[in-house]
Request: fold
Amino acid sequence: MNIDNNDILIRLRYALDIKNIEMVEIFNLGGLDLTKEEVLKVLTKSQDVENHEIVEDEGHIPCDDEMFESFLNGLITFKRGTQDPKPGQPDKPELSYEHVNNLLLKKVKIALSLTGEDMIDTLELAGVKITKGELSGLLRREGHKNYKVCGDRYARNFLKGLTLKYRG
Reply:
């Protein structure tokens, strides 16, 4: 079963124990003006039907890649504070349109000030062994010769490890 952006947000919110009002603030910091009601609709799972098509209902807002990356950018600001852009840098980060799971690892690593060792330990909590080299490939920029796409297994287990680490 594929993990979708709404599911990742739900799991990340739970792992880091983020309150609804904080979710609204994080989306706002990422440049998206969502109400608490809209955030709650984003925090519902997509409904799969038998032929694996996503069924939309009134109480669900799908989280596309742009919305997801905006949330992660907001999470970095929420956890680390605002930074003044360096000369020649845009005021807010440009969206990268990278693979969602790679983006999750990179941005959460930044937001929580995790080292490579911390990330390896977090995955190990979930029962996944990964080498520094493998992790490095997942954290590379798309197009780099050593870049590796992060599969759902790593993303799911990283979120599970965060849950075990932060919620015990």
